[in-house]
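Notebook entry, structure prediction.
Reason for the run: the old model in the group folder had no record of what sequence produced it. Starting over properly, with the input documented here first.
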Amino acid sequence: MKKYLTPLALLLLLAACTEKVDLQSRSDYHEYLSVEAVLTDRKEDPQRITLSRTISYFHQEAQPMVSGASVQVNDVVFSEKEPGIYEAPEGYACEEGVDYKLHIRLPEGDEYEAEATMPENGFRLDAVDYAFAGGKTMDSDSLWTLAVWGYEKEISSYFLLTHAVNGLYPPFSMAVVADDKFFNNADVSGFPITGLLQSELLRKQYGDCFKYLEAGDVLTQEVWTLDKGFYDFLVALTMNSVSIPLFTPQPANVPTNLRGDQVLGYFAVCSVSRASVTVDDPFRPYFKRMFPLL
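New structure, fully documented this time:
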């Protein structure tokens, strides 16, 4: 039998369920220092730390960069190459098992610190290959797949998966973060690890990392080994993530290892495995290493 609320009962119910809610206005916004400090063991890659200021959701302008800061990791001084972008001396890279301490001092005197240790590399990446997966798929002009060969070590590890087309990377937010529950202490042979969505819309927005593949293009796959804290930070930022059990709840708040007043971000040091392949036939439907006679 259906039951209906009378107007009086409905009014009483609404009154009983109401509570005071304070909405934050634009004038209540608190500005935070935003720190992007992810260093690797790749000497050929620039090691950069970026400092900026957060802006209100209601504002449309770009985040203001923080210039004139003192940025140092252990005894290495990072010099400001562009407004808010601080870079280590050429050839600098982090090492596995070493403890690193970040120190930031802003022109107005505020100081921030964080510590990080590079975890042991959890994945040996031996080779990568590609296959054409079809056109007009998943709202893209064409779709390719990257597969990897290597070995996932016995240690418990967390990874970030990213790729490049001719040295150009898609936005960091499009990378995939994953744990090692699928391949723990096992050989990996021809596993399709990344999908390449090629579309003119994405190319206009992000550049030639989303170009239509042609013969001579170089595809690079990277597997970054993360510490658990940085993994949790990336998952909390709602990046693409793969974990077991599936649908594991995300952290309620974005974590940080930075100490100081009103600061967001994370300081991490990561080991990186990398392999590349040169495109010969963009429409090759099978992996050469899996089916060499086709």
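Summary: The domain at 30-117 is CATH 2.60.40 (Immunoglobulin-like).
The old model has been moved to the deprecated folder.
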